[in-house]
Amino acid sequence: xxxxxxxxxxxxxxxxxxxxxxxxxxxxxxxxxxxxxxxxxxxxxxxxxxxxxxxxxxxxxxxxxxxxxxxxxxxxxxxxxxxxxxxxxxxxxxxxxxxxxxxxxxxxxxxxxxxxxxxxxxxxxxxxxxxxx
Length: 133
Fold this sequence. Notes:
There is one protein chain. The protein has one domain: Beta Complex (Metal Binding Protein, Guanine Nucleotide Exchange Factor, Chain A). It contains two helices and ten strands; from the N terminus they run βββαββββββαβ. Helices cover 9% and strands 35% of the residues. It starts with a strand and ends in a 17-residue tail after the last strand. The chain has a five-stranded antiparallel β-sheet, with no helix packed on it. The chain has a three-stranded antiparallel β-sheet with strand order 1-2-5, with no helix packed on it. It is globular and about 40 Å long. By secondary structure, it is mainly beta.
């Protein structure tokens, strides 16, 4: 069931809310950026994501095809979300679950995780090794 969650970067300059179903799978990816930043996203459709504050504090990073955007707070460096159009489900926002406010650890621990092999652009299969993701 969709619920509205609020979140922010570490310093609080960037704030957002998203309608998420935390019973749905989240993702861990081994691509070069997700592996380095330990990004743990839940998927929000475009109409379910709202940037509340800090648009001017965001900096965008693109790599590879340049179709997907990785947004970081220019003050604290935290990546609260990403935006993609070149994904298996079309346009979406990847909301960093670690940036959600007031979500208890036991709730985070129950969120299902799907591992994807982004390094090989194999979005339908887990990589051989996942324990480090």
